[in-house]
């Protein structure tokens, strides 16, 4: 029965007449949250969400469950975020860039060279004093940000060369995530940013539409980018989070005790993922090397840092973004 609901979602058939929005009902008293995920089952975010699902089921005696759909099974991130807005599914993992179009203040977390480490990122991203208002601010877009995962540090990789300085990126078409900050960032870094969804990148590099991409080691290896753009230069220019977004009406409609369980189990899941990421990234690097990828540390980080400084200044335009930025700076 459940499988057939999902095939209906995949076929974009209207579900509203059949099941309540964002959930599938296994029986009258139970609720299943469908969670869209665009990466593989080996990713630490997938494992963390599975932990959440187990905790939720156990603590509600099976009344509330969650199911994670990996590998873009429910669609690319941009689409699954929209499906969360409309309540077709309950939750989606969303790269930080995608939230910028709802509230431009989110751009503060999309800025290059913002954090020095995953540890610093962890201190900020799930700290309600710093992010609480921002995460609730998108309720007018029908979603709430329940919290944040790390997505490690992103670096540039190219088909046929390493990069050391911004000049080495001249004319290179690099895929970036779909936000103004990301497109601008690549321009400042010396290259040409082409915005597209993650699932299209492999073929675009293979066919020459792109010269390369920028991402963390896990995506580089698990989505096989290492095969088509094997020169990975450790620019480590971006540490953006992945948010877990939920349909806000669905969240607000939960009984208080269930909300508490959801929040507590998610807090454990986020913590686990932040702690597991670095080890998984190291494994991914080793896997990429096995298929012939090469990693270069010969990168003039200061030159890249200087190149994006005007972008940072141009995005910190109000008190919300300035205050968050200052709190992050204080950690460095
Ligand atoms: C990271 C991130 C994803 C995102 C992706 C991208 O891997 O974890 O959420 O989709 O980058 O580049 O689009």
List keywords for this structure.
19% strand, disordered N terminus, 2 domains, 12 strands, 332 residues, D-Maltodextrin-Binding Protein, domain 2, alpha/beta
* Poorly predicted residue ranges: 1-21
Number of helices: 14
Q: Helices and strands, in N-to-C order?
A: HEEHEHEHHEEEHEHEHHEEHHEHHH
What is the fold-level CATH name, i.e. the topology of the largest domain? D-Maltodextrin-Binding Protein, domain 2
> Which CATH C-level class of the largest domain is it?
Alpha Beta
- Helical coverage, percent range: 40-55%
**Main beta sheet strand tally, sense and closure:** 6 strands, mixed
Radius of gyration: 20 Å
The averaged pLDDT comes out at 92
- How many domains? The number is 2
Structural features, described:
- By secondary structure, this protein is an alpha/beta fold.
- It folds into two domains: 2-96 and 117-150 and 241-276, Bacterial extracellular solute-binding protein, family 7 (D-Maltodextrin-Binding Protein, domain 2, 3-Layer(aba) Sandwich), CATH 3.40.190.170; 154-239 and 281-331, D-Maltodextrin-Binding Protein, domain 2 (3-Layer(aba) Sandwich), CATH 3.40.190.170.
- The chain is globular and about 55 Å long.
- The chain is built from 14 helices and twelve strands.
- α2 packs antiparallel against α11 (256-290).
- Mean pLDDT is 92; it is low at 1-21.
- The protein has helices at residues 2-10, 44-59, 77-86, 118-125, 128-136, 180-188, 201-206, 217-222, 225-228, 248-252, 256-290, 301-307, 309-315, 319-331; strands at residues 23-24, 31-36, 64-69, 91-95, 143-150, 154-158, 173-176, 192-195, 212-215, 231-238, 241-247, 294-296.
- The longest helix is centred in the C-terminal third of the chain and has 35 residues, at 256-290.
- α6 (180-188) links the parallel β7 and β8 (192-195).
- Bound molecules: alpha-D-glucopyranuronic acid (GCU).
- Alpha-D-glucopyranuronic acid is lined by residues 38, 77, 93, 95, 151, 177, 198, 215-216, 219, 242.
């Amino acid at each position: 029965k459940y499988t057939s609901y999902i095939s209906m979602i995949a076929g974009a058939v209207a579900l509203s007449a059949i099941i309540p929005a964002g959930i599938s009902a296994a029986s009258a008293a139970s609720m299943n949250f469908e969670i869209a995920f665009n990466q593989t089952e080996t990713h630490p975010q997938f494992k963390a969400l599975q932990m959440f699902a187990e905790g939720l089921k156990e603590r509600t005696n099976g009344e509330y469950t969650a199911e994670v759909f990996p590998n873009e099974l429910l669609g690319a991130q941009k689409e699954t975020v929209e499906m969360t807005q409309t309540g077709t599914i309950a939750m989606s993992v969303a790269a930080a860039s995608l939230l910028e179009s709802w509230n431009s203040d989110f751009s503060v977390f999309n800025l290059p060279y913002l954090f020095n480490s995953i540890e610093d990122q962890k201190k900020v991203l799930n700290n309600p004093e710093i992010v609480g208002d921002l995460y609730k601010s998108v309720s007018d877009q029908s979603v709430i940000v329940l919290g944040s995962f790390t997505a490690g540090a992103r670096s540039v990789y190219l088909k046929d060369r390493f990069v050391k300085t911004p000049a080495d990126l001249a004319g290179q078409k690099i895929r970036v995530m779909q936000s103004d900050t990301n497109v601008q960032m690549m321009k400042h870094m010396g290259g040409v940013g082409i915005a597209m969804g993650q699932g299209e990148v492999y073929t675009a590099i293979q066919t020459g539409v792109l010269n390369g991409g920028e991402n963390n080691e896990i995506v580089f290896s698990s989505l096989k980018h290492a095969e088509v753009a094997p020169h990975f230069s450790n620019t480590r220019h971006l540490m953006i989070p992945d948010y877990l977004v939920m349909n806000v009406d669905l969240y607000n409609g939960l009984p208080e005790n269930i909300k508490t369980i959801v929040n507590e189990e998610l807090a454990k899941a986020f913590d686990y993922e932040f702690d597991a990421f670095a080890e998984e990234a190291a494994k991914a690097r080793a896997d990429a090397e096995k298929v012939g990828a090469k990693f270069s540390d010969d990168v003039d980080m200061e030159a890249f840092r200087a190149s994006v400084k005007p972008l940072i200044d141009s995005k910190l335009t109000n008190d919300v973004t300035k205050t968050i930025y200052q709190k992050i700076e204080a950690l460095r």
